[in-house]
Description:
It is a single chain. By secondary structure, the protein is of the alpha/beta class. Helix content is 51%, strand content 11%. The protein folds into two domains: 9-176, Rossmann fold (3-Layer(aba) Sandwich), CATH 3.40.50; 181-363, Dehydroquinate synthase-like, alpha domain. The protein has helices spanning 16-19, 22-25, 39-42, 45-55, 72-85, 96-108, 115-120, 182-200, 207-223, 234-254, 258-270, 274-290, 294-303, 309-320, 328-338, 353-363, and strands at residues 9-12, 30-34, 59-63, 89-94, 130-134, 146-151, 156-161, 169-172. The longest helix has 21 residues, at 234-254. It is globular and about 60 Å long. The protein starts with 8 loop residues before the first strand and ends with a helix. The model has no long low-confidence stretch (mean pLDDT 97).
Amino acid sequence: MMKFFMPTKVCSGKGCIVEHAAQLKTLGNKALIITGKKSAKANGSLHDVQAALDSLQIAYCVFDRINSNPSLATARDGARAAKEFGAEFVIGIGGGSAMDAAKAIAVLAFNELDDKTLFSGPYANPVLPIVAVPTTAGTGSEVTQYSILTDDRLETKSSIASEAIFPRIAFLDASYTEKLPVPVTINTAVDALSHAVEGYLSVKATEVSNILAAESMAIIGKCLPLLDKGPLGFAVREQLLYASMLAGMVIAHTGTTALHSMGYSLTYFKDIDHGRANGLLMHEYLEFIACHHADAVEKITGLLGMKNLSELKVCLDRLLKEKETISKQEAQRFSAKALQAKNLLNTIRKPAREDLEKIIAKSFAV
């Protein structure tokens, strides 16, 4: 049995927000824009969204307090802003942090929930409609039903998973990614790669999700050698954004796997960027999978245009450069945390705690 559901209307191309502004009018007359302090202003995305709203006489308020890895407290502050303004829909502008925060704010605006119920559901009241404007090419959050928030209670990142938070509309304009620093471009591209790879290796994978994952990996494989070679042209930026969206569609159906489970602790405890964390672990993770599913891993390296996992390791090592240092005790702690993550169950080869510790330790030469 197979189920495929992707309710987000995607508009793409340079200037797509202004060109398709009328789509916003279907969602309401008052919008809360959710973004960070600087990037949306610098890359022009905030200006374009405001211009589109002004042209439609839609009132708006800007909540620009989103930082990397947004917390539950930030989401609750945003929900209060939405209620006070009387927002009828929300617009998340930015990377995964802004879009994920927008989703949580959309839930909390009219639902009084404790932390546990926020992550588990159900929600008694409607969720505000969500518009997503990605300004990085990595998370794919514009086409998923997930919101990842920092959960200090559990000392990790926790996820909301509900079809109610699929964005209604996503505007994909790669021009907003043109000024990204090289490390951000690399980390987000590796994040998209991890989504496609993990979706391909998920117990929930289907023929449809594998087609999308394969296309995403093939595109990313062509782009990887270019990421640290100087300024990327618009065409490459557009391909990365497209591949990220495809990978988002993949994990919307397959979920992520043990790779993400392990990466969460690296981000929470070591402040390692999410995509970078996945990339640092990816080679050893795939070696672990290959012991039982060699054909699947061989297909992945082939789709990336590489001969084997060793070639992938060389590529990732070059892009990610010097690794952070972790101790043996940290490897033990992080593996124990990973074992508690829900997405671990999606992995086609189920790891024990010892397996997770070995992957982390070998990745960092502990």
